[in-house]
Amino acid sequence: xxxxxxxxxxxxxxxxxTDESVFCDERRMEQVLIAFxxxxxxxxxxxxxxxxxxxTQENWILxxxxxxxxxxxxxxxxxxxxxxxxxxxxxxxxxxxxxGLAVIDAIIEAHQGSLNYSKSKTLGGSCFKIQLKxxxxxxx
Length: 140
Prior knowledge:
By secondary structure, the chain is an alpha+beta fold. The protein has 3 helices and 5 strands, in the order αβαββαββ.
């Protein structure tokens, strides 16, 4: 769904996914991914986009990293608040309502997980990290 759109935007996605399941609301997680990928298409600079999932003993983790400029520290306090937009780097012509990250954060919190932003250590741009509890699946 997004691969061709990433290519048109000049994004080369590098995908490293575990073959592990995570206990979650599938429709809500689809909503999270669509919102994230829509933001990537709207705001990321051409370059590499790294999509990684892995599990630890306690968590399932999804990381999205890009090569863009990242987000200035002055915006981090408000980053996941509804209607917050980085006006210095995005115009109203870009579209969007400023709800994407707030909706993602609310869905992840409803799953008792966390959403964090940091500077990507791998690519130098943004790194968004979702952590969900790694609940054991019981055999019946």
